[in-house]
Amino acid sequence: MPTWNSVHYRVWSAASSSGEEAYTLAMILAEHAGSKNWEILGTDISTQILDRARSGHYAIEKADNIPKNYLTKYCLKGTGQQQGTFIVCPELRQKVQFIHANLKDNLGQLGSFDVIFLRNVLIYFDMKTKQQVVNQLLRQLKPNGYFIVGHSESLNGVVDNLKVIVPSVYQKR
């Protein structure tokens, strides 16, 4: 596993839940960044769900959302007692780390990131908490880094130091 300081390109799935987003991002980076030095961090407040994410083991129905070429290249289909499931290949799981974190806490120890995904989380917070969480995460975003929220979410009135690239995709100024 790479150390925080040796990683050149870092992506954070800030509310990773059971890990599908983090592993999807890992598949994309493996495909397009190849052997370059990159890492995905997934965080969530639920330790139970993080244990599931770390396993990379999912019901086969989840595979319907994965492009076939990624599925055959980065996933292993379960057989025998594991029939009806698949697991993300070990090589890809090694590039993804999951840790417990409360987004309202100071998370400076996580280091800085090139891209932060915070999708479908802000809808659960009041304005004051949205501002607190977004500002907390933006401290970890590198200059010119990208901050991505869910399609039903907006940062209007939450922060003003981001440039809108397309709806739900912002860039730190």
Q: Give the helix/strand class.
A: alpha/beta
Shape: globular
Please list the strands of the largest sheet in the order they lie side by side: 6-2-1-7-8-10-9
Average pLDDT level: 93
Helix count equals: 5
User: What percent strand?
Assistant: 25-35%
Measure the end-to-end span.
31 Å
The number of strands is 10
Largest sheet: 7 strands, mixed
Q: How helix-rich are the residues, as a percent range? A: 25-40%
Order of helices and strands: EHEHEHEEHEEHEEE
Uncertain spans:
1-5
Rg to the nearest angstrom?
A: 16 Å
Describe this structure in words.
- The chain has 173 residues and is α/β, with parallel strands linked by helices.
- It has a domain at 119-173.
- 26% of the residues lie in helices and 29% in strands.
- The strands form two sheets. It has a seven-stranded mixed beta sheet with strand order 6-2-1-7-8-10-9, with helices on one face.
- The longest helix has 13 residues, at 20-32.
- The two termini are 31 Å apart.
